[in-house]
Amino acid sequence: MHSAFAPASPQAHLVATLWWWMLGVGGAIWLAVIATMLYVTLARRGRRGPDDLQHVPDATRRRMERVVLGAGSLTVLVLAAFLVFDFSVGHALAQHPQRALTIDITGHQWWWEAEYEDPDPSKRLTTANEIHVPTGEPVQFKLRSADVIHSFWAPNLNGKKDLIPGYLSTLWFEADTAGVYRGQCAEFCGLQHAKMAFYVVAEPRAKFQAWLAAGAQSPPPPTDSTQLYGQRVFLSSGCAVCHTIGGTAAQAFVGPPLTHVMSRATIAAGALANTRANLMAWITNPQAIKPGARMPAVPLTGPQLAALVDYLGTLK
Amino acid sequence: MTSSQREPMLPAETTLSEEEVAREAAALDRVWAGRPGFWGWLTAVDHKSIGKRYLVTTFAMFLAGGILAAFMRTQLMRPENTVLGPDRYNQVFTVHGTTMMFLFAVPVMTAMGIYFVPLMVGARNIAFPRANAFGYWTYFVGVVFLYVSLIANTGPDTGWFAYVPLSGPQYSPGHRVDVWAQLVTFTEIAALIAAVNVIVTVFKLRSPGMSLNRLPLFVWAQLVVSFMIVFAMPAVAAGSTLMLGLDRTVNSHWFNPAEGGDALLWQHIFWFFGHPEVYIIFLPALGFITPIVETFARRKVFGYTALVMSNITTAFFAFGLWVHHMFATPIPELGQSLFTAASMVIAIPTGVQIFCWLATLWAGRAELRVPLLFVLGFIFTFVIGGISGVMLASVAFDKQAHDTFFVVAHLHYVLLGGGVMPLFGAFYFWFPKITGRMLDETLGKLHFWLFVIGVNVTFFPMHVLGLEGMPRRVYTYLESTGWGSLNLVATLGAYTIALSVIVFLVNAIRSWWGGEVAGANPWNSSGLEWATTSPPPPYNFVHVPVTTSRHPLWDTTVELPVLSGLRTDRREVLVTTTFDARPDYRHEDPAPSIWPLYLALCMGLTFIGGIFSPYLVVVGLALTLPGLFGLAWQSITNHRGPDHVDAPQALAETA
Amino acid sequence: MIGRYGRFMIALLLSSSAFALASCEREARRLNQQPPPGAPPTFVAQSPLQPGPTLVVDTAEGEFDDNAYNTSEGQTLFNQMNCSGCHANGGGNMGPALMDDEWLYGSEPNQIFASIAEGRPNGMPSWKNRLNDKQIWQLVAYVRSLSGLTPKGARPARQDHMMMTSPPNQTPKAKPRNSGLPGASQHP
Fold first, then answer.
1. pLDDT confidence of residue B35
2. Which residues pair with A180 in a beta bridge?
3. Pick from A241, A242, A291: which is nearest to C31 by CB?
4. Chains sharing 3 or more CB pairs under 8 A with chain C
5. Contacts of A142 (CB under 8 A, 6+ apart)
6. CB 3.0 to 4.6 Å from B54: which of A13, B93, B111, C135, for a disulfide?
7. Which of B367, B474, B480, B524 has the highest number of chain A CBs within 10 A, making it the mutation to test binding with A?
8. Percent of chain A with pLDDT over 70
9. Which among A279, A228, A99, A104 has a CA at the least distance from the CA of A174?
10. What letter would DSSP give residue B242?
11. Are B461 and B61 in contact (CB under 8 A)?
């Protein structure tokens, strides 16, 4: 689920083909060099004649020249072939689609913000760390950074692209196999670079459309009293100054939006599975799980925490 | 000084009696002796003392960087390990990279040049001995500075290429990155000094008759690399101190996009230095290989001209590759493809060199002593790194592999295979020259096998890890990623490397004191450095050797012709012409001096103090003035007798 | 040679250990550190003016005053919590300037802590339930660094955005004057 060896898009396929060819030819070259090396050193061992420090005979010399020249020319040819192959792959990858679903990715220390572009601003959907894409159509990513350099990389789908402050970079791919693909920040970005992962969920257009529609809705208001209490805890504690929950007064953009947090498989940018116990551990002491992360420990009593997690459980 | 006015050089045919030689040697001993005791140690200007010191310090840095690497591998041994937290891990990997690149790899290569280039060209000392000592002390201050900072929890923590804005003022509070920025600059000053020294030594102090086409390939490599240092190092010095340092301390805006700066600019500046840096490490290592192959194949190397041209071409192209470190940035595709082509082209000269060595071995009868084993280990390992390097030159593939463990694997294959293995071979080969004793062959073989196996077991799995998605510079990873088992293998390999280095250490220490005594030329090798005793006297040669071929000790059947006529009552070196190495004039070599150390400490104060207060820069610079006057005064008072003597006259004195 | 070398190394390392120890605290990053237990006492005097004899004002250092990392985290919070919305990077706009020498409610760390936690009349919100104590102490360190009240080595440098104010590491120390009047120095 997280490997350049298992391509799930034509783009990653092209690169993987290039890789296997390079590995094959490169491996053959390596074997040839090592075989030659072993032959020239081992095959003549022990047959050391008297020290003949004069030049080698002309015939041998000419043979050496031919061999070295031949090997050199072969190197040039192989490299030229590589170059042509690489340029053709690079050219294919560089053909940006004319129309495509566009997702704005913003890298933060240490999580990913994803905003689905739509001509109607009210339909723009913002989510975090889990990016749904339709299969069989090109998806374009506009990559920006909110702080330092990050690098967006889902190896099954395409190569990586850096998010550099002051620059807009773009990347696109077309997932051809439905599935969940893990990606991770690839450019060192500080204390929690190691735990800045994301998931790309590739699914058929209909399913994707349903997800998109559901995402635009606010979650239903809490019904039972614990959940209501949990919502109060959320809104009156530190949570609400950083996070957004659609349909409530919590509308801050410092941390990942939590409107549909329960629809995501993981929390804390892929660091933990999204379970009740993990949520509680994360809220109580995030620094034990991701030391240095921007999420502070939230001082809550036991009942407050339980109610809060109950409430979060309704945000599907 | 035009050579056309001169008669062709005619060595005067005289033979000196043994008493005469002994008398001259005694006189030279007196004149070239350093001062006694600790003071003498601080004031030494002999290139061999400085070179040896450099070698010991750089090797200590190799151990320090290795210990840090062992910590990292232990942390990554299993998922969610807790040996190092993210803060410590970031410091450890940054200091590991910084140590290995700036305090080990480049200085150890220049150290080999400082020790051996004068011996190989038949000179009595390096061209600028006091500058050379200054370079060492500068480097040494840098070593102490970095490690004191690390112990003080101020170790730099943004990687050895310190990308802005992470390393910039906003995201790296405190002085950690300042330490890095200043350290890089002033250790590069040490490299620049060594480079200028080597260039001038090669061009002006060669033994008479050693025209450029007779220059040993070791020396060619050092010469080419010295030119690379001269062009590459200023970029990083300017980038780190004048741009990054000023951004951080006095709030300039070089890298601040909001104020018209550019975060990508840093990457261009850094890699314009950083890529040539790789070849600055690699080319001298290739220079070690030729004499080793020649000696143990007992054949002169095949394709001298091709090897020299390969060196020069590699150096030239090395400056046109830097963007391949930046393929994932938003740089236009057309621009990137030019760098792809250049990155592939540079494989050709390296390939040609390997083919030439294989041809030499083919023509000869390989004698598998430890130095040659390391050369074979080099080919075995380095070719993998070279092939993965060609793969990384492809933009499309690089976007998958960039900044992952694949790159970690590649760079360690290249640096350990292409740099450290030849270096170990060179240690075994030249250790007798430096210490007068042989290294133990059995322990050497054990060291070799453990090292080659360790390197491959450590780094080969990393190729797979990288393509399975493991980014570099992660302090941990989740169990669900499935990277655990290969990481465990890599860690076991790292421990094997550690074991092999311990074997080497034991071997070196044991042999230094109790090894088999080596003669002047234990390997029956061909270079001029083997013409003098092991270890060489402070003046290197009783008489300046005269060179008549590329392999002086193999091609002279009776005895090496020498030139006499240099004064024995003062430190005198013979300066020859740049291309043909005709005797030009005699130059007085400076006496031991404390000023290089003093100046290096002032420089340290300027650079380190600059982190804390701009006033300390002024103080440091003011304090250098007495040092400069001291140096000049020493030159004036030491000056005895005329320097400039016509070459024919100098030759006439032989009689 | 080795022996001399070794002695030299040891002497050098010992002599530089003083420097080492001095900078330990400034660079420490105790990421999993819990909020300091010393939350300010419930009674914090906001003014040095007291009836009767002059009150001895508590001049203890702030919890994170001499720590570069926590000061920088305070700066991040200052941006994220939109403190600049009123205080404009410390230059002052709707809210009072923080980089000058005027302090309405005291410049001592526990006084600033109280001002952030409790809020102050005419617009300063109370952050007590929104930030934990550690975060407030981080903000205290940053706010004090803005007028040069914390050690220079721990003060932040410029940020990567446009700022009209001088960065804390270049701001001269402004000796606090507890005037009780906003902008008193401009209206003598």
1. 82
2. A201
3. A291
4. A, B
5. A102, A103, A104, A105, A117, A168, A169, A170
6. B111
7. B474
8. 96
9. A99
10. I
11. no
Least confidently predicted of A133-137, B597-601, C176-180:
C176-180
Strands A139-145 and A101-108: parallel
pTM: 0.92
> What pLDDT is attached to residue C91?
84
Residue B308: which H helix or E strand, with range?
A: helix B304-318
Closest CB from A238, A287, A288 relative to C131: A238
Q: What tens digit of pLDDT does each residue of B107-155 get?
A: 999 999 999 999 999 999 999 999 999 999 999 999 999 999 999 889 9
Enter the tokens of residue B425: 């071979």
As a whole number of angstroms, the distance between CA A107 and CA A170 comes to 13
The whole-number average pLDDT for the span C64-93 is 91
Residues contacting B108, CB < 8 A, separation 6+: B54, B55, B58, B59, B62, B423
For chain B, the chains sharing at least 3 beta-carbon pairs closer than 8 angstroms are A, C
Cα–Cα distance measured from residue B481 to residue A194, given in angstroms and rounded to the nearest whole number: 12
- In whole angstroms, what is the distance from residue B620 CA to residue B597 CA? 14
Which backbone phi and psi does B591 adopt, to 5 degrees? -80, 165
Averaged over A65-93, what is the pLDDT?
Answer: 91
Minimal-distance CA residue of chain B relative to A74: B348
Give Rg (Cα) of chain B: 25
Q: In the predicted model, is pLDDT for residue A100 greater than 60?
A: yes
How far is Cα A50 from Cα B172, in angstroms, rounded to an integer?
65
Residues B384/A28, Cβ–Cβ less than 8 Å: no
B:45-64 residues touching chain A, CB 8 A cutoff: none
Task: Please answer yes or no on whether C17 and B258 come within 8 Å at the CB atom.
Answer: no
Q: How far is CA A190 from the centre of its chain?
A: 17
Indicate the helix (H) or strand (E) that contains B466. Answer: helix B441-467
pLDDT, position C186:
46
Please tell me the predicted confidence (pLDDT) of residue A46. Answer: 53
How far is residue B310 CA from its own chain's centroid? 19
**ipTM confidence score:** 0.95
C-alpha Rg value of chain C to the nearest Å = 19
CB B356 to CB A68 under 8 A? yes
Instruction: Quickly tell me which residue has 């998931």 as its tokens.
Output: A199
Structure tokens at C135: 């975060």
**B329 in contact with chain A, both atoms CB, cutoff 8 A:** yes
Per-residue pLDDT at B17:
77
Residue located via tokens 């300042």: B178
For residue B437, what are the β-bridge partners?
B517
Amino acid at C146: L
* B593 contacts B43 by C-beta, under 8 angstroms: yes
* Rounded CA separation C120/A256 (Å): 30
* Number of C-beta neighbours around residue B558 at 10 A: 5
Average pLDDT, rounded, for chain B:
90
Each residue's pLDDT tens digit, B394-452: 999 999 999 999 999 999 999 999 999 999 999 999 999 999 999 999 999 999 999 99
Backbone phi, psi, residue B275, to 5°: -75, -50
Evaluate whether B565 touches B655 at the Cβ level (below 8 Å). Answer: no
Yes or no, beta carbons of C129 and A291 under 8 Å apart: no
Q: Which pLDDT belongs to residue C1?
A: 45
CA gap B575, B555 in Å, rounded:
24
Environment class of B535 (CB within 10 Å of its CB; exposed 0-12, middle 13-18, buried 19+) = middle
Write out pLDDT tens, residues B254-311.
999 999 999 999 999 999 999 999 999 999 999 999 999 999 988 889 899 999 999 9
Alpha carbons within 13 A on the beta-carbon side of B126: 30
Report the alpha-carbon distance of residue B24 to residue B402 in Å, rounded: 61
Q: Which of A96, A102, A99 is nearest to A114 (CA)?
A: A102
